[in-house]
Design goal:
By secondary structure, the chain is mainly α. The protein has eight helices and three strands. A three-stranded antiparallel beta sheet has the order 1-2-3. A hairpin with a 5-residue loop joins strand 2 and strand 3. The longest helix has 20 residues. The chain is globular, with a radius of gyration of 16 Å. The protein starts with 13 loop residues before the first strand and ends with a helix.
Amino acid sequence: MRHVLEWGRSEWKGANKDLLTSSDFLLLYNDMVRYGQQLVSGIMELHSRGILALNLKPCNFLLDNQNVAVVGEFGIPMLCGGISSPSSEHPYWVGSPNYMAPEQWGANLRGPISFETDCWAFACSIIEMITGEKPWNHVSPQDIFDAVVVRHQKPMVPSGLPPVVDKVLKACFEYDYRNRPAFGEILHALTQ
């Protein structure tokens, strides 16, 4: 699996949080596309094995010695069965609040977790890689819940992107997971 962390390898540059999302170093569009294509390939490899990432975010992406982006952490929330929520109203989460799709806040709220769930977090990650700011930055988990689940708000896609990329990123934020693009469609948009 070329674009997924291989256990036992030690030649990683480190998390992209330091390399790709610092507000002092914003990715050029071409670099974002290249890394995005590599990450989509890794996510598709995971999905082909029936594994949902559920915690995609830039600090879980790594660069190898050839400057290739790989998915460095995946499936841990799924394996652990959830992460405790600070609110007693919401018994569990699966993921990191700033990157979570509506259904990750509780399947009873918006339907089951699926491969399309990873689209939302991938698009949030791309936005962070471009802007240097994570979606819902400086917002509490409860306020993110209210924005995403209650008010159906979506993260802002930055202006100035090519129309095909803008369209696919916005489609990743469809509230109904069944209307989100497959990762093959995302890869196609990033290769145009």
